[in-house]
Request: fold
Amino acid sequence: MDMQACSRSPASGTEHERWRFWKHHKCPRCLEDDENGAHVLCCQDQRACTQRTKVLKVFDTRLRTIKTSKDIRRTMLAHVRAWMNGTRPYIRPTPQHLRATVSNQTMLGWDQFLKGRIAKSWVPLQATDFDARQLRNTGKSWAAALTVAIWELSWQIWDHCNDILHNRDVYDHLIDMDAKERSIIVE
Reply:
């Protein structure tokens, strides 16, 4: 996979302005200035929150499908949801065996998690769980499947934002904003 593709979030308002597709870099959902990759994932517009809830349920199902440990799954979901909502994680106390890994991921960043950059210490924890359940799965294959699931989560949120952006009403509103800005500059 191309290194640029892995290192960047999908295009946001900031990139659209830089590439001169738009004269501004507002979020198409909440119209906040400086839309960037992190804002796409954390936008607090009601439509974004509703979509995020749906997508996180799909992500939870995907984590179950790849046989993620219940403690790991609940912990990941709580921290991702908290990062997206700008709150503290709402879970019962983090299990002792996960605390160091959660700390590692927190230092790396939950925004980085949503780009597929997971703390290495998740892998042996999940491998230990597979061994305890006498499953033939490996931590390495689980990590690959987790990364794909994370990318799908991020993509679905970005795609929702993109659908709103290219909705005719929003598109017309943004074009009108560009025209107003140009007319003010001309005056």
Observations:
- The chain has one domain: 44-186.
- The two ends are 49 Å apart (CA to CA).
- The CA atoms of residues 130 and 137 lie 6 Å apart.
- Residues 1-8, 12-16 have pLDDT under 50 and may be disordered.
